[in-house]
Fold these 2 entries.
Entry 1:
Amino acid sequence: MNYEIIDCIDAGTKFCPCHLAESNECILCSQLQGESFCDCKNWKGTCIFQELNWNNNKATTERENYVAVIVKKNLIAKGLIKFVIKISHELCKQLIKPGSYIFMRCLKTSPYFDVPISVMECDLEKDTVSVIIEIEGIKTKKINDLNEKDSLVVRGPFWNGVLGLKNINRCVDKNVLLIARGIGQAPVIPVLKKLHNLNNNIQLVLDKGKYKDSFIQDYLKKYPCNVIEINTMDEGKMSSDLVTLLKDSIENRSIEHVHCSGPDVLIQEVIREINSRTTTSCCNNAKMCCGQGICGACTTRFEGHVVKRLCKLQTDPEYIFEGRRLI
Ligand code: FES
C-alpha cells in the first residue's frame, strides 16, 4: 500500500526549530502539533521538541540577508538573463545540492521585492552562483536594472526547490530520465550533476519552450547525457511525442526514475502517465515569499482539511496533486 512519507527540509539543520515549531505547527513533531504523545513523522537525528525546549521555546536563527556583487550579466534571449553572483564561501557551500535557491532583490528596494531564484550552478573555487532570471514582473524588472559590479541583497540558503529529493539521492547506477522545459532547464542542472556523479545512465528530454535556443548546452558537455529534443507540451497538454517516449523508456529501456522540471500541468500529466512504475521527482513550483513557513504564500490545501507548506515540506511529487483542493 502506498502512503505519504513526509519530511521537513529544515529538520536537523541550524534553522530548526523554526517559527512553526514555536507555534505548535511543526510539520514533523506530534508534540509540537499540540499532541501529548511522541510520534514524530520522520527522524532526522535530533528531537525537535527537545531542541525547542533547550532554546527557551523560541525559534532558532532565521535566514540572513547578505550583500552580494554581480560578477557577470548576460542577455541570453529577450527577457532571459544570466547572472553570476559573488557570495560568501559559507553560503556558496550550502547551495550546492539540487533544489537550492536564494531570494534576491536590489539594495534600494524593500523586502517585498524578494524574488526566489533557483541556483543553476555553484563555483566553490570562485564563490559564485549562476542563476537564470526570466524578466516577467516588477520584482525581476528591478533586478534587471542592475549591472555588473552592482551590489544586491541575497537571502538564503533555501533548499526545497525540488520535491522527491530522497528519490534522487537513492539513484545510483540506474537508468534515469530527466525532462526539462523552458526556464525549467536551469534548476535541472544540479539534478543532472548529482545523478551524473552517482554514475547513472541519463536521458534528458530537452524542450526549449518559448525560447529559440537552449541555454544549458555548456552544462551538457560537462555532464554528458543522451539528449532528446522534443516538444513536451501541445495545446496545454503533454504532447503525444512525450507520451510515446515515456512508454518506451519505462517498458523497453528500464528507466527507474523520472525527474520533471517544467510547469505543474506537465508534471501532473507525467506522473499520471508513469502511474507509480518508477520513482519520481520534480521542481517545486509553489509561490515562495518568506521561504520559512511564516507567510503562507506557498500553502496548498488538500482533502481532509490538510494544509501543506511547500517551502518546508518534502514529499513525493504524487502527493502534491492527489486530493488537491482549489478552495
Ligand atoms: S513561503 Fe512563506 S510559508 Fe512558505
Note: The chain has a mean pLDDT of 95.
Entry 2:
Amino acid sequence: MARSMLERLTTRARFGALQGARVAWYGAHSMAMRRQVRQVEKSLDLPPRRFEPPKGPVPDQRRMLADVAALLARDLSNVERGLYPMPHDEPGGLAGLVKRSRMFLDDVPEVARRRLTGAHQEVFDKDNPTGRPRYYMQNFHFQTDGWLSEHSADLYDTQVEVLFLGSAAAMRRQALVPMAEFLAKRDQRRVAYADIACGNGGFLRSVKHAFPRLPTVGFDLSDAYCESARARTRSCSMVDYAVANAEQLPIAEAHFDLVTNIYLFHELPPKVRPVVAAELARIIKPGGRLIFLDSLQTGDVPDYDGLLELFPRLFHEPYYTSYVTTDLRALFGEVGFEVESERTAVFSKRIVFRRA
Ligand SMILES: C[S@@+](CC[C@H](N)C(=O)[O-])C[C@H]1O[C@@H](n2cnc3c(N)ncnc32)[C@H](O)[C@@H]1O
C-alpha cells in the first residue's frame, strides 16, 4: 500500500517536472519569438496594415494555460490508468533540445519575413518534377522549405510546441487512449496499423513506446519527413515508412484494423478532403477504427472561436477557414464511417470513427 502510494507520488513528481518544464521552455521561446518578430517588422519598414479584429472571442494567455494544465492532468490520469507509459524524454536529450532551440530561433526572422510580406509560395515549382499536388507545394505556417527538407523536419516539433504552449505532444497523445482501448481486447502483433500523414514521426515514437509489438507503418508525402521519422524510431522494431499521397495509398482494400490521422485535414483543400476520407474508408477493414485528431472547429469551444479566425491569418493555412466549418460527421459518414466518440483537447479535437 505504502509502496504504491510512493510510486504514485514519484510518477506525479516526474510527470509534473517534465511537463511543467516543457510548458515553461516553449512559453519562453514564444516570448523570444514575438520579440524577434517585432524587430523584423521594424527593419522591414512596411506600410501600416489594417487589422480586422476577429468576430468571435479570443481566450487570453491565462485561460489557455489553464486549459493546457487541464489537458496535462488528463494526460497524467491516462498514464496512471496504464493506458500509455510516462511520456519519454526529448529526442537527443538536453543537447538535442538546445540544438533545436538554436535552430528555431535562427529561423524565426525568415518565418517573420514571410509572414509580414505574405511570401508563402517559395517552394512552389511550376515544373513540379516530383508530381506532388499543387496545394502541397506551399510554405504552410510560413515555414522554411515547406514540407520539403530535412531542415524543416528538424524544426517542426519546436515550431508546433511553441505555437501550442508546449501542449502539442500531449494533444497527440489523446489519440493513444482509443488505441489502447482497441488493442486491450486484441493481440497487438496481429493488428494492422498505419498513421497517415505521419510527419516526422513524433506521434509514432509515442505509439511504439506504448505498444512496442504493434506492427506499424507511417505514410507521408514528404521524403524528408519520412526519413526523419525513420531516424527517430530507429531503435523500435516493426515500424516502417513509405512516401505516399493520402489521396491514393499503395495499399489493398480493407487492409488495416486501425488507422490514425493527425493534423492533416485542415491542410487539405475542400475538394481533396472527401477524396482522402474515401481513401481512408477504402483501406480500413469493416469494424476497424479511424482515430482522427485535428484542430478544434467553430463552436466546439465557443470561447476559442476568435482564435480559430486569427490562426490562418498569422500562419499560412490557406484551407483552415473552410476546415473549421466542415461537417466532419457528414464528410466521413458519406464514405462509411460512424462516430463512436468525440472529445476536445485544448486546441484540438479527437474523433473515433468506426468503419461500418
Ligand atoms: C501538420 S503536419 C502533421 C504531421 C503529423 N501527423 C503530426 O501530428 O505532427 C501535416 C503533414 O501532412 C503531410 N501531408 C500533407 N498533404 C498530404 C497528402 N496529400 N498525403 C500525405 N501526406 C500529406 C505533410 O507532409 C505533413 O507531414
Note: The first strand starts at residue 193 and ends at 196.
